[in-house]
Amino acid sequence: MPVQVATYQGRETVTAESLYAAAQEFVPEIRRRALKMERARRLDDDLVDAMEAAGLFSVLVPKRWGGAGLGPHEVNRVAEIIGSADCSTAWITSFYQYHNWFLCRFPLEVQQELYKDRSSVRCAAVWSPPGTAERVQGGFRVTGRWGYASGMLHAPYALCPAMVDNSPYWFVVPREELEIFDDWDMASMAATGSVTIATKNTFLRDGWGMEIKRLMSATGHAGTFHEEEVYRQSFSVLGMGTASLCLGALEAAVELAREKLRTSKPFGIPRIDRSPSRIRWARAYEAARVSRLIRDTVTESAIQRARKGSPLPLEDEANMGLHGVFLMQTMKDAARLLVDGLGTSGYRADDPIRRMSSDIAMLSTHLLGGDYDIVMDRHARWALGLGVDPGDPMTRFA
């Protein structure tokens, strides 16, 4: 059944509030479809089409290309709203938003080709392991195989990493040059369809590959001509996207659990009349409230630092990373509190709190490509003044 929502009104009328309203309009429909999409291991095509038409993937796209030209707080809020419906849908939404931001840092001629007759580009992206890129006349020949390509099932492009002169680049690879392996069979975040992709000896023109550290930087890329200030800021200002979608899911789970406290009556006694059940709910409720405060403070601090033009010291980046890990762990534990306090029914396949808890737990292990131990060890080294480990495969946010 087609999704009935308002379409994107274009750059002359779009505002942050209109995008929030558009995102909120999708929430009931996404919730209705969530279990079916989880079982299908992919989002519904018509849902993705409708969300794009509503402008939800173009939040960060410059007005020059017909996007909303907004910034970190707005992209966090959209992720939060969609996360209140389904984490998988919110994950793909956030990916498409962020990857548009990266694409708009490529050379102008590349952007002109990508954004011809469109205000957003659906683009998957993978982080590791890097493939190989051979310099040839007029460009590169790229070979590689990459997992966790979230969004690929609905995207005409993917950002694929490959090494150039001992430095990781991202190459914009068209879908027709990629082989897709449908190997996404996961217990959580199942609807993302984060398949494996591969390409072999694919020619890509000059300009269609850029050094990842330049794309992450404030001004080292080719997109500083855009009027929006987010294109003169490093990726650090966008570091709260995953936490935002999980915050939306947790807050929705808290409200669903509030109702269950009233309707669930084990041994004939309403859960709301049991003090342990009320305490469990209150802990999750407060965890969501505190997480919001931290999320907003960290984001605003990153923006203010970026506006001063000062580089992000390694210790400050560590502190931001630790905030992110703390938020994810806090929200994971809070969601689990709710599930464990709802009895056997909380583990039904169609229970949305069960799904939200499981998805938040998975995302807490997947902070931009590294599991908890890897990410925490990186930030511990930086906070302790030990510097970057030469063997660390990850790229800094600044």
Number of helices: 11
The major pleated sheet works out as: 8 strands, mixed
Helical content band: 40-55%
Shape: globular
How large is the share of residues in beta strands?
A: 5-15%
Q: Please name the CATH topology of the largest domain.
A: Butyryl-CoA Dehydrogenase, subunit A, domain 3
CATH architecture of the largest domain: Up-down Bundle
| The CATH C-level class name of the largest domain | Mainly Alpha
Mean pLDDT across the residues is 92
Helices and strands, in order, run as: HHHHHEEEEEEEEHHHHHH
Structural class: alpha+beta
Number of structurally distinct domains: 3
| CA radius of gyration | 21 Å
The low-pLDDT segments are 6-11
CATH-assigned homologous superfamily of the largest domain: Butyryl-CoA Dehydrogenase, subunit A, domain 3
Detailed description of the structure:
The protein has 11 helices and 8 strands. The chain is α+β, with helices and mostly antiparallel strands and 398 residues long. The chain folds into 3 domains: 99 residues, Acyl-CoA dehydrogenase/oxidase, N-terminal domain (Butyryl-Coa Dehydrogenase, subunit A, domain 1, Orthogonal Bundle); 93 residues, Butyryl-CoA Dehydrogenase, subunit A, domain 2 (Beta Barrel); 145 residues, Butyryl-CoA Dehydrogenase, subunit A, domain 3 (Up-down Bundle), CATH 1.20.140.10. Strand 2 and strand 3 form a beta hairpin. Helix 4 runs antiparallel to helix 7. The longest helix has 34 residues.
